[in-house]
Amino acid sequence: MSREPILSVEDLHVWFDLSGGSELHAVQGVSFDLRPGERMGLVGESGCGKTTTILAMMGLLPSSASVAGSVSLDGENIMARGEDTVSPHRWKDIAMVFQGAMNAFNPVKTIGSQIVEPMELHGTATGKAARGQTRELLELVGISGDRVNNYPHEFSGGMRQRAAIALALACEPRVLLADEPTTALDVMVQAQILELLVRLTRDLGLSMILVTHDLPVVAQVCDRAAVMYAGEIVEMGAMSTIYHDPRHPYTRMLFGATPDLLGDADVISIPGAPPRLDREIVGCPFAPRCDSAFAPCATVAPRRMETSPGHEAVCHLNDHVVAKEPA
Amino acid sequence: MEGRADYVVKRTLFALLTVFVAVTINFLLFRALPGDAVSGLRCQHCTIQFKAALRHDLGLDKSKWEQYKIYLKQLAHGNLGLSDVSHEPVRGLLWDPLKNTLLMLTLGTVFSIIFGLLTGVVAAWRRGTWVDKGSLWTSLAFYSMPTQWLGLMIVYFVADRIGLPHGGIQSPDLGILGNPSTYDYWKDRLEHMILPALTLGLVLYGEYTLIVRSAMLETLGEDYVLTARAKGLSNFAIVRKHGLRNAMLPIVTLIALSLGFIVGGAITVEYVFDYPGIGLAIVDAIDKRDYTFLQGAFLLLTISVILFNFLADLLYFKLDPRVTT
Amino acid sequence: MTIDHPLPAAPEQLEELSAEGLGERRTPGFIRSAILTQPAALVGLGVLFFFVFIAIFGSYLEPYSIHDKTGPVYAPPSSAHWLGTDDGGVDMLSLLIAGTRVSMEVGFAAALVAMLIGGAVGVISGFVGGIIDVVLMRITDIFLVIPDIPLMIVMAAIFGRSLRNIIIIIGIIYWTSTARLIRAQVKSVRERVYVKRARSLGATNNRLVFKHVLPQVAPLLIANTVLMVALAVFAETYITFLGLGDPSAISWGRLIENAFLGNAVLNNAWWAIVPPGVCVTIVILACTMVGQSMEDALNPRLKVGHLSVRRFRLRPLGGKLDSE
Fold it and tell me: Of A146, A172, A198, which residue is a domain's last?
């Protein structure tokens, strides 16, 4: 793809204040580009910083967070002045698909009124027009328009997820950030939701970042994938390359891991746990759990290497590859 | 929607069952007294024969079970018996104090709900700031104070300074120079109501602020608040449209459950301020051992509280579309 | 500040609350560390120990007899009478110390009664389940709705006027919320893996309850009992103030009553009014701080606030890490 990126994240860091004055470095210098029409997967175990990354891009982090780095939309850094510069773009240009199965909808208000809300706030449609659009949106995601006045609890988990997608589309954004949209759904419904996301992004020309702990899901849906571990992107590249030639042991193990059939948690059978992020990490953060770790891993942090064009990984196993560091 | 109709039916049945249990407790408690309504009578013609006849008339010579049935029957006709002291119908004796209490209680409760809601919401919104900490400790302190003591403190330290009466319900000199106008009459009434209502209101204010704050904090942590922020709602709009509406659910329940506390507070406040409401009447009845009156007053209070709890259930039903059982 | 929920939650919330945050089996030191790491809880605990100490050793600390006139009527505070005297010329400080003993006794004893009844109902209801659970909880619900203070007044008017009766009356009226809380907890403990495992290994019900369920429920029960102490101290002042207290016992409630009946206001004797109420307020605050911190530690229910006047901050790159 040769087009200019629509969204470009550069050296994004997020810290959270912990009680007792210490800090947790949740996102440690994440950079990636998203091109128009592209679907990118952001994969990793829970706590690896993937959700924090997209919340930071939306400017939705709580007051205990501090953010550094830039997020550029069409070349304009929307992080430049924090909330002030993000809020005009939020939902209008970049919208988020929340986990509909959870409490993304207010239980005491109708689905329709909650979808109308952002339209009226951003002035994309008001009154009758907004209600008409809401019905169309619901139809678009496969829900009968007659159900606009239903309450969230009257929807099944799958329908709530569809409604959450409709909500994200309310102001006709160009970028969708989808946060675990299929978690807590059964396998059949999962497949339908993924299919819907693919269809919508293709038909409406949207770009999408899909955040999930499930690498096989990314493989089905996305053109490109970024694997996150301990707040960093440890491997990134075209989906087919990563699938056939993973250059980080973690990626390889993620492919090998079988997700829980009940689909309700990050049950991944990689032994061990990720490192704590409130203290400095020496060497490669994955080394203690790695099956291929060797001498330098414990002491020297691996560098980011481009193993082939557009494919980069952060692992000492690639040290022999005589390649340049990505700019 | 059938499930929702079931809810109303169930809550109604539960309220009725609770009333029935309260009535039964009332009967049993007062039958546990030594002697009966007749044995305490002292009068010239109160011979043993006369007492026996009276017992027969009142059904006191029958078995407890028969007496219970008689009691229920009398209650069904709204008959609460005769006062042991003045021998007037208790129902009539309750009426005036009830009006006075309701006025004062409404004033105090409305005050505390309005200010409790405001402070609680602002505290939750500004969580962790000095506004939050200050209001949290203030309300905790008021919540911890014995009502009667706060009343005494207000009488001692506040009443004279702001020139409000702190005893009775009417100035003794009102109407000496001819009939007071309606305006003067009610102004005087209101002035007498303010301090007792304020005392009660402050204690309740503490409680309500704590309830509202914790309910709001819980609500503001919900996922849909994040959604609302993402959609672009302002802080104020989030609190109004998504926070308060949802926090009202636990608030309604908890305020309903605190009604016993409100009623208890009203009793001591009326005693401290010599305000002639139900509470003062109860204290008086305790003093004179007028158990029939006490029984009637307790029943009245209990049924009112059950009624308000039932109303709170209905309100909850209206607020929460999810309620089905 | 840790006291985020100083009030008992509504019954249906209690069920949800205690079902979460209990994934693992708690170690015995849990409560201790929960209290020791929270300043509010530590302060509260210190205050409670202070008053318990006064209650136990009070008779050695009273400067004067509480039965004799040792000064003029309503004498203001002086070096001889630090807190002045009351309407009978009795030393206020001695009365306050004597009152501590009775108020703490009523508070702790009544809370214990409530804990025993509520704990028993909760454990039986939660552990046995089925129809017994339904019946017990229906009864609990009914008693939750019947206004507690009026019921207490009526019972005290009929049976009261002795400390023992007052303790029992307060105890049997305040057990309901404990029962609800404990039931929810027991239900979740019962479902936990190790109890199931113990059962499949053939443990009897008695053994299950005493070896597995009770130790897990105990911390919450203790936290709840501490909160109950506050309610009971409060209730005692109510009952006594209305003239239903034990005529022979000097309690804080009795001192407030004395100040009221003895016209302390007219005599400008603030020293007869202020101290007993301050003591009640402080003890109730302390109980709330301790009990609430414990409950909060046991039921971590506050999630991150998504709404705040303050938003995330921006940080220049590189600067912060160096300054750490």
Answer: A172
